[in-house]
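Researcher: We plan to redesign the surface later, but first we want a full-length starting point. C-alpha cells attached.
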C-alpha cells in the first residue's frame, strides 16, 4: 500500500487553515444529519493506493440510515486524485451537491466522494465504500485492522453467548434444525440470531450458494439455500461465518437462519417473525 499523503497533496490544502474539530452531536436523530469525532486512525485505499489517511475522522449518521459513514479533514485526503464529478449524483446523500470522481491509474470512479451541506462539516470529505455501494474505495482500515461494508458504530453491541436453550427451526413445516447448544448473537437493533452447530442442522436439505457478504462486526459469511424450496422461501436463507472476527469467535462454523423467513421455536414457545431491514430484501426475486 502506498505511503500516506501529506498535507501538501490534500484536497483544499490551498485554503490554508487546518480543519477545526467538530463537536459531538450524538445520539443520531431519525430526521437529521448528526455526527461526532472519532479517535481511531482510519485509512481508505483503492487497490494498493492510499487515498485517505486520517487520525481525525468524523462519524456521520445520515437521516434514516442505521449505520454511519466516515468523513475526513480535507488535508488528510489525496487532492490530486479527486475531480469535480462529471455527473453529480445529487440525490445520493442528504442534500449534498458537491461530488467528486476518483481518477486513479486511468480508471474513473464516478461520485466516489462528496461533501455534506452543513457548515460544521464543510472542511470534510466522505467516501463511498465499494462493498456497501458498489463503487468507491475497496479497502478500509481502523488502526491496522481491515473493516468491511461500513464503519463500526460505537453505539452498537454484538454479543455472542453460548446457551442451552432448546431451539427448533422449521421451513414450510419441515424441521430443518434442532439443538440444545446454540450460540445466541445479540446485536443492537436486530432480532436475536440463533447459531446452531452444523451437526444439528439437516444440511442434506440445503445447497451451498456463491453468495458472500461482509460484516464489520462478524466477518465474511457464506450461505445456503433450501434445495427444494417453495415459492415463498427466499434463497440464501441460512449462513455461517467460517472465520469470524475474534469478538464473535464462538460462532465459527455455526449456522443461522433468517428469523424473518423461517419459523423458530425456543423452549417450546413459537417466536414471531420480526420485521427488519432484511424483510423486504428477502421477498425480492433473485
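Model: Full-length starting sequence:
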Amino acid at each position: 500500500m502506498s505511503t500516506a499523503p501529506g498535507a501538501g497533496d490534500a484536497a483544499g490544502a490551498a485554503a490554508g487553515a487546518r480543519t477545526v474539530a467538530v463537536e459531538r452531536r450524538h445520539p443520531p436523530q431519525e430526521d437529521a444529519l448528526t455526527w461526532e469525532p472519532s479517535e481511531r486512525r482510519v485509512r481508505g485505499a483503492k487497490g494498493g493506493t492510499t487515498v485517505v489517511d486520517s487520525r481525525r475522522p468524523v462519524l456521520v449518521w445520515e437521516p434514516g440510515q442505521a449505520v454511519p459513514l466516515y468523513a475526513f479533514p480535507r488535508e488528510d485526503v489525496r487532492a490530486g486524485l479527486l475531480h469535480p464529478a462529471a455527473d453529480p449524483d445529487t440525490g445520493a446523500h442528504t442534500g449534498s451537491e458537491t461530488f467528486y470522481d476518483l481518477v486513479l491509474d486511468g480508471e474513473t470512479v464516478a461520485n466516489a466522494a462528496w461533501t455534506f451541506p452543513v457548515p460544521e462539516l464543510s472542511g470534510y470529505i466522505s467516501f463511498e465504500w465499494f462493498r456497501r455501494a458498489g463503487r468507491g474505495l475497496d479497502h478500509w482500515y481502523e488502526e491496522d485492522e481491515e473493516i468491511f461494508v461500513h464503519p463500526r458504530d460505537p453505539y452498537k453491541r454484538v454479543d455472542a453467548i453460548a446457551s442451552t436453550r432448546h431451539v427448533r427451526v422449521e421451513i414450510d413445516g419441515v424441521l430443518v434444525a434442532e439443538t440444545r447448544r446454540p450460540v445466541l448473537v445479540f446485536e443492537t437493533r436486530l432480532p436475536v440470531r440463533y447459531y446452531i452447530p452444523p451437526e444439528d442442522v439437516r444440511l442434506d436439505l440445503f445447497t451451498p450458494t456463491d453468495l458472500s457478504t461482509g460484516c464489520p462486526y462478524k466477518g465474511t459469511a457464506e450461505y445456503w439455500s433450501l434445495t427444494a424450496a417453495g415459492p415463498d422461501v427466499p434463497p440464501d436463507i441460512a449462513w455461517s461465518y467460517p472465520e469470524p472476527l475474534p469478538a464473535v469467535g464462538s460462532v465459527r462454523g455455526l449456522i443461522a437462519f433468517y428469523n424473518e423467513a423461517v419459523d423458530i421455536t425456543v423452549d417450546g414457545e413459537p417466536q414471531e417473525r420480526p420485521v427488519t431491514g432484511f424483510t423486504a430484501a428477502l421477498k425480492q426475486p433473485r
